[in-house]
Design goal:
The chain is an all-beta fold. The chain contains no helices and 14 strands. The chain has a single domain, classed as Tumour Suppressor Smad4 (Sandwich), CATH 2.60.200.
């Protein structure tokens, strides 16, 4: 077992991201406060999740998740790990990518379902031990094991199906 440098939570040896706070466990980064909010698009069908720059970030990385049952698009711009799940105000859980408005509850998306991360223009997903699993192209992702995502991959949180579109410069 190893401890997270950011929140001191116990993690499995070899874990890349902390299952409690989402911190990158590879190479120590300085502790910092970050806030990410979803900004409504008005009449547009695209949501942007902005994220602050970290000290080690070079350029913003972007990718899109397309909700396949209705075609809505979530443009994610990030230089850090993003928590995917459902908001629970009572428990203080507010994920960076909130799938509540996309049928997340009915699809079995957990409150703290998975992490999305971008490193060196590659996108990874890591299941956080969710109740209904994370799947890439119908293959279940083992908990706490990051899996590389490719352009066009189908990504499923519970039964909520999305398509990955990589938009790296």
């Amino acid at each position: 077992m190893q401890k997270c440098w950011n929140c001191d939570a116990e993690q499995l040896n070899g874990a890349i991201f902390c299952t409690e706070c989402g911190a990158n466990l590879i190479g120590r980064q300085q502790r910092q406060e970050t806030t990410t909010s979803l900004e409504g698009p008005g009449d547009a069908e695209e949501w942007v999740v902005p994220a602050p720059r970290t000290l080690e970030a070079t350029a913003a990385s972007a990718f899109t998740l397309v909700v396949l049952n209705d075609g809505r698009r979530l443009l994610l711009e990030t230089n850090r790990n993003l928590l995917v799940g459902r908001t629970d105000q009572r428990r203080g859980i507010i994920p960076d990518v909130d799938l509540s408005n996309y049928g997340g509850y009915d699809a079995g998306v957990s409150r703290r379902h998975a992490l999305l991360a971008v490193r060196d223009k590659q996108c990874y997903v890591e299941d956080l031990g969710s109740a209904n699993g994370t799947f890439v192209n119908s293959e279940q992702v083992a908990p706490n094991q990051p899996v590389l995502l490719n352009h066009g991959d189908e990504l499923k949180f519970g039964t909520l199906l999305l398509r990955v579109e990589l938009n790296f410069d």
